[in-house]
Amino acid sequence: MKIGAFIGIALLELTSATGLAASRPIVVELFTSQACSSCPPADALLSEVQAQNRDVLALDLHVTYWNGAAWTDPYSLRAATDRQKDYARLRHSTDVYTPEAVVDGEAQFVGSDRAAMRGALESARAKISAAETVTVAVEAKGDQILFRVGSGAEGADLWLFGFDPEHATRVLGGENGGSTLREVNVVRSITKLGSLHGAPMADAISVPAGMKFAVIVQRRDGAILGAATN
Asked: What is the reported pLDDT for 3?
């Protein structure tokens, strides 16, 4: 949508109040399903990683391909399944599985593998400290999500994730039937905001599903260049 005078003022307020951060969080994505018995340990690890690492943006993405008559995951999103397939194509594969973790768009591994998670986080921190970060800011204001991206993102896409900080779900069927699953940062919406060609960008869209929001700048080879949450 077009930005009117009110939105333009709001974006100025966003810049002055929030600022454009000099660094960015590490983005940890977990592809999971409430119908998968191997997934609860990975969700528990994601919760632990988020709680113990202030520089991590955790995103819990529920895929659709486990849904069936026994249990349909209420948080499953076709966009999450599509995103995981895109990551599979980057490793020249069509195979997808749960639980799968992707750290900063590059490291892909079994989501419950604690050692792999630790190594991927350490590698991501080293890359962030050595590289120039694309600055990002995001704010929810009324019925609008305001976002701004600094210069330098060439050949990248801009993504908005709406997520809920926490959910506890009593699963009534399937492999986890009878269990209560507790999950953090459950993604409720994924929106492509546009493509970037090196120039700064500022805009606003109507609020999608989710209680909180994150904006991610991602190159087409998967690498994360910038990220921020409100």
From this structure: 41
Q: Please, what is the Cα angle at 126 between 44 and 151, to 5 degrees?
A: 100
User: Spelled out in words, what is the top-level CATH class assigned to the domain 5-229?
Assistant: alpha beta
Backbone angles phi, psi at 209, to 5 degrees: -65, 145
Q: 116 with 45: CB under 8 angstroms?
A: no
CA distance 101 to 36: 15
Residue extents of the structural domains in the chain: 5-229
Low-confidence ranges of the chain (pLDDT < 70): 1-22
The length of the chain in residues reads 230
* HEC sequence for the chain: CCCCHHHHHHHHHHHHHHCCCCCCCEEEEEEECCCCCCHHHHHHHHHHHHHHCCCEEEEEEECCCCCCCCCCCCCECHHHHHHHHHHHHHCCCCCCCCCEEEECCCEEEECCCHHHHHHHHHHHHHHHHHCCCCCEEEEEECCEEEEEECCCCEEEEEEEEEEEEEEEEECCCCCCCCCEEEEEEEEEEEEEEEEEECCCEEEEEECCCCCEEEEEEEECCCCEEEEEEC
User: Are 112 and 169 within 8 A, CB to CB?
Assistant: no
**Are the C-beta atoms of 56 and 26 separated by less than 8 Å?**
yes
Residue-wise pLDDT tens digits, 122-145: 999 999 998 888 999 999 999 999
For the whole model, what pTM was predicted?
A: 0.90
C-alpha distances (whole Å) from 95 to each of 85, 98, 201 are 8, 11, 35
Q: List, in sequence order, every residue forming a beta bridge with 206; answer none if it has no partner.
A: 144
